[in-house]
Amino acid sequence: MTHSVHTSASAARHTLPDDGLTGRAGRARREPMAVRALRDDTYLVDTEHDSYIVDLDARSCSCPDRTIRNARCKHLRRVAMEVNEGLVPPPGKRDGACAVCGEPIFVPVGKGSYLCPVHRPARGEFVRDRESGSLLLVTDVTSERSDERETDDGRPIAEYDSNRDYGDHEPVVEAVYVGRARAADGHLDVSGLRRYSFPASRLKRIPDDIAPNLAVVGV
User: Going by fewer Cβ within 10 Å, which terminus of the chain is more open, N or C?
Assistant: First the structure.
């Protein structure tokens, strides 16, 4: 499960839009609650009467409705709703930001640099080098920062003169130069080509309607 755009849960209790549900599901949406993701992949749910700990993976909640009656309580339901609606991160994710535009996104727990859907190219996507104008094909999008990834000579990607205008905190995108690939029968073969590393924003995405219409092999 992934989410690209979200609003972090406020400390203030709030309701969710009423969608006509009844029972515990309806109360889960209509009752004011504040949901906050904790570092151990659990969630703190603050209600008007008390606070409870919810674990989605274990389907547990510290409230009496769950611990005593074994019911799927409104707190469990509320956390699941807020995760599904992109209001709080799912288990295994945390609040983060796109390394290029700063757009809030959910990212994997731990170190790394990440991109929002607008700035994250897909593997096998054609892009342009902003410095040379050359056409390239993306072979990988990593979570390693440009000031951490080093070339064979031990020099960080971010320190190259051609990369100094781009963020050293940006993730490295690997790509091959299309001009060096073999093309035959409408297929582009990039197998065996050297993979180059770039700060993400140095590579400009190409709209689908003007991107080369070639099948690619060897990515």
Answer: N
CA distance 52 to 117: 34
Residues of the chain with pLDDT under 70: 1-11, 180, 183-186
Summarize the chain as % helix, strand, coil (round to 5): 15, 30, 55
Closest CA to 112 of 163, 174, 156, 172: 172
* Beta carbons of 199 and 147 less than 8 angstroms apart: no
Q: What is the CA 6 to chain-centroid distance, rounded?
A: 11
Q: What is the rounded CA–CA span in Å between residue 78 and residue 149?
A: 41
Per-domain residue ranges for the chain?
A: 1-91, 126-217
pLDDT at 4: 36
Note the pLDDT of residue 186. Answer: 66
Of the candidates 40, 133, 127, the one whose C-alpha atom is nearest the C-alpha of residue 91 is 40
Estimate to the nearest angstrom the gap between the alpha carbon of 90 and the chain centroid.
11
DSSP state of 181: S
Size (the chain), residues: 219
pTM for this model (two decimals): 0.80
